[in-house]
Amino acid sequence: MTTRDASATAARRLALVRMPSPRLAEGLLTHQDRVEVDVDLADAQWEGYVEALRAEGFTLVDVPHADELPDSVFVEDALVVIGGTAVVTRPGAEERQPETAAAEHTARELGLRLERIVAPGTLDGGDVLAVGDTLYVGRGGRTNAEGIRQLRVIAARHGLGVVAVPVSKVLHLKSAVTALPDGTVIGHPDLVDDVSMFRSFLPMPEPEGGHVVVLDDHTVLMAASAPQSAELIRSLGYRVITVDISEFEKLEGCVTCLSVLVR
Ligand code: CIR
Questions:
Q1: Is the pLDDT of residue 79 over 70?
Q2: Active site at which residues (predicted)?
């Protein structure tokens, strides 16, 4: 493991990230048409994303990059962190399954306890949304029923409940919805199968407006592609930091998928 800061394991707020592969443009597409990806711009945007996390006090931990794995930058899909435990996933796309080995290694070096989703279960981290003591888990193209069942068992050991949510319109649950620090679930209604699944749902005006990374109780990180949603969230008393991730959005990535936060 390479850490950007030798004190990483002692810090309270860590962000695992994984440098983009030079083959990023070959990443998988399911719901979107392929458009040209500017790999140099993607590299610059990734640096901007990482810098935004660093500026907010996160210590960056690099999962070793994997040139041969185009989607490996979307590190969120390989690990789900619950307290001091990292659940090593089993991605639903076979091409992405080799991504978990290095993520597991990094999690072990950080001293996290490890759990695993095993065959025939599949689960992508992008399908897991934590809200209080509930894990909403998307049942869509990548996460199957057995993956949800296994996560339900693991979550119960940590005092968390799992609510399974059908996802048919987008790649992952968190391609449709995420949650504000107060637990309000946000998303663009056209992308959500059933908004009544969530205890409290606030519609956002743009599709990308449903994606936030909660940095602390007052601050969220969002993509620059959803300015009206950012304004709406600011009007609720939150600080909103924006980053341009256009090249990752072309590959069905969103702001959550480029990191795994540990705190
Ligand atoms: C994929 O299809 O797997 C990648 N191109 C995009 C993954 C995005 N992951 C995420 O939103 N959690």
A1: yes
A2: 172, 257
Q: For the chain, what are the domain ranges?
A: 2-262
Q: How far is the CA of 11 from the centre of ligand 1 (A)?
A: 28
Per-residue pLDDT of 107-163, as tens digits, reads 999 999 999 999 999 999 999 999 999 999 999 999 999 999 999 999 999 999 999
DSSP label of 65: P
Task: Give this complex's ipTM.
Answer: 0.98
Hey, what are 49's tokens? 């994303």
- pLDDT on residue 6: 39
254 in active site: no
The order of strands in the sheet holding 185-187 is 177-179, 185-187, 201-203
Q: What is the pTM of this model?
A: 0.95
- CATH number attached to the domain at 2-262: 3.75.10.10
Which residues fall within 8 angstroms of residue 150, CB to CB, at 6 or more apart? 117, 118, 121, 123
Contact 70, 37 (CB under 8 A): no
The response to whether residue 250 sits with its C-beta less than 6 Å from ligand 1 reads no
Say how far apart CA 41 and CA 25 lie, in whole Å.
Answer: 12
Task: Please calculate the CA angle 217-218-224 and round it to the nearest 5 degrees.
Answer: 120
State the distance from the centre of ligand 1 to the C-alpha of 91, rounded, in angstroms: 10
Edge-to-edge, what's the strand order for the sheet holding 128-131?
Answer: 128-131, 134-139, 161-166
